[in-house]
Design a protein that fits this description.
Rossmann fold; elongated; four-stranded antiparallel β-sheet; Alpha-Beta Plaits; about 325 residues; 13 strands; alpha/beta; 2 domains; binds magnesium ion; binds adenosine-5'-triphosphate
């Protein structure tokens, strides 16, 4: 044990470290050599498209799967030697949680409370996730958002130092998502806990995560705070110009001549520009569109977001069905 062991759960240390993580299923490589470090007290997001290896990675970290290769240290312990102690210091929600349908929320929480020596009470957990009103409701009668909040409450039962949440808000309505974000933030900010979550939602990562790792094909392809990742693109805005036949009217030289353009992409109907200063680029684009006698059908500008980082790195969108 090194000197960090005593304080691993709080302040200044490394809560989770993966080195050279590999997971193979026959000919499928789910995790392809992943290095990752999560700092104590941060909310870290693993982002990536379907099949990127997020669940496999997080389940190896949770001790539920054995890696094919590589090492994982969790709170300065490892699953081979310290499994019992580790289990009492982490909280986990799986990508899909199914609990006993006929039991009530309070009964289910009592089961989790009974697993730990120093557990929160069921009442305390109900209050943390604002499910007091549903204490007597059967699991099968909860909404999706309530089930997810119950799963997080169960994960918090043993006062964990580190919380692993696999897609905690997928499929939830905006209000349920926000209320879970609040629970997660309070765990980090008030309890000093560390969070590792996976998500497909860029806005979730931007709102919640101190740092994110973007995973694709089992590898980490980018790492940093959402702000750092977005500013690594070297621009701040995207301008989209819709006009029929726009690709024929603008060749590469014409696009590069537009002021402040960092990147450009064009389909027959849409010109997408990544720009530093929209107030300079937009008038120039409009003048050029007019000079080419194109009929403008639409114009929009927006701030760059994490999604654009993913598109920049892979040429694909993160969510299924959003490919260009
Ligand atoms: N038990 C298994 N046997 C064979 N292949 C598996 C198994 N579990 C996962 N895989 C494969 O490993 C890859 C990574 O899967 P994983 O579940 O980790 O992805 P994910 O990033 O969590 O995706 P999603 O966003 O859809 O949850 C996928 O190609 C998947 O089909
Ligand atoms: Mg998954």
């Amino acid at each position: 044990m090194n000197e960090r062991a005593g304080i691993a759960g709080r302040g200044g240390g490394v809560a989770l470290r993966c080195v050279g993580l590999v997971k193979r299923y026959e000919d499928v490589v789910a995790v392809a050599g992943l290095d990752l470090e999560v700092r104590t007290g941060e909310c870290f997001g693993l982002l990536g498209p379907n099949g990127a290896g997020k669940t496999t990675t997080i389940e190896i970290c949770e001790g539920l799967l054995a890696p094919t290769d590589g090492t994982v240290r969790v709170l300065d312990m490892d699953w081979t030697h310290d499994a019992t102690q580790l289990r009492s210091r982490i909280g986990v929600t799986l990508q899909e949680t199914r609990l006993f349908a006929k039991q009530t929320v309070r009964e289910l929480l009592a089961l989790f409370v009974a697993l730990y020596d120093d557990a929160r009470s069921a009442d305390e957990l109900l209050a943390i996730v604002a499910l007091e009103e549903k204490a007597g409701a059967r699991y099968q009668h909860l909404s999706g958002g309530q089930k997810q909040r119950l799963a997080v409450a169960a994960a918090l039962a043993g006062r964990p130092d580190l919380l692993f949440l696999d897609e905690p808000t997928t499929g939830l309505d905006p209000q349920s998502r926000r209320s879970l974000w609040d629970v997660i933030r309070r765990f980090r900010d008030d309890d000093g806990g560390t969070v590792v979550l996976t998500t497909h939602y860029m806005d979730e990562a931007e709102a919640l995560c101190d740092r994110v790792g973007i995973v694709d094909h089992g590898k980490l392809i980018a790492l940093g705070s959402p702000r750092e990742l977005v500013s690594s693109l070297g621009a701040a805005h995207v301008v989209e110009v819709d006009a029929d036949g726009i690709d024929a009217a603008f060749d590469t030289a014409a696009l590069e001549a537009l002021p402040g353009v960092v990147e450009h992409a064009c389909t027959t109907e849409r010109l997408t520009l990544t720009v530093r200063q929209p107030h300079v680029a937009v008038p120039a684009v409009l003048r050029a569109v007019e000079a080419k006698s194109l009929r403008l059908r639409g114009l929009s500008t927006r701030h760059l977001a994490l999604e654009d980082v993913f598109v920049h790195l892979t040429g694909r969108h993160l969510r299924d069905g959003e490919a260009e």
